TrEMBL record:
It comes from the Bacteria. The keyword Transport applies. Coiled coil: none annotated. It holds the Pfam family ExbD. GO terms for cellular component: plasma membrane. This is Outer membrane transport energization protein ExbD. PANTHER family: EXBD MEMBRANE COMPONENT OF PMF-DRIVEN MACROMOLECULE IMPORT SYSTEM (PTHR30558), TOL-PAL SYSTEM PROTEIN TOLR (PTHR30558:SF7). It is a single-pass membrane protein; Single-pass type II membrane protein. It comes from Acinetobacter apis. The chain crosses the membrane at residues 26-47. One of its GO terms (biological process) is protein transport. One of its GO terms (molecular function) is transmembrane transporter activity. Belongs to the ExbD/TolR family. Its main location: membrane.
Length: 141
């Protein structure tokens, strides 16, 4: 795109083209700055995160299955447990067995965390070491 100013005989024409050289220089400098600073920003405290494992659920007769419904009621192998003291007593009986049984907790999706937390605390108070959460795998479609 050109532009004429003044008489037609002048050789001093105004140049109407944008000089992109300074723009390219600035962009290259910014690119170099980002390439240098991004690796520094992404480094954090080194922590080894646990890896996801998918173990098949095996039901053994000695395993204890605790289910917590959305109202927070606890069931021991499908038998209703009325309070935490009863649950603690039953778990203490199981904790003295060798090998110690595993406790599998099945919690409803709508269950409040507090209800599950109380069950976990009771299991720990009883002295049972291994607690597992039973989940359902996602539907494949």
């Amino acid at each position: 795109m050109g532009m004429n100013v003044g008489s037609e005989g002048d050789d001093d024409d105004v140049i109407g083209v944008i000089n992109t050289t300074p723009l390219v220089d600035v962009m290259l400098v910014l690119l170099i700055i980002f390439l240098i600073t991004v690796p520094v920003v992404t480094h954090t405290i080194p922590v080894k995160l646990p890896e996801e494992t998918n173990q098949k659920y095996e039901t053994k007769p000695e395993n204890v299955t605790l289910a917590v419904n959305k109202e927070g009621q606890v069931f021991w192998n499908e038998k209703y447990i009325p309070d935490q003291n009863t649950l603690l007593g039953l778990l203490k009986e199981q904790s003295v067995k060798r090998p110690q049984p595993e406790v599998h907790i099945r919690g409803d999706q709508q269950t409040h965390y507090e209800s599950i937390g109380k069950v976990i605390e009771t299991v720990q108070q009883a002295g049972i070491i291994k607690i597992s959460f039973v989940t359902q795998p996602p539907a494949r479609g």
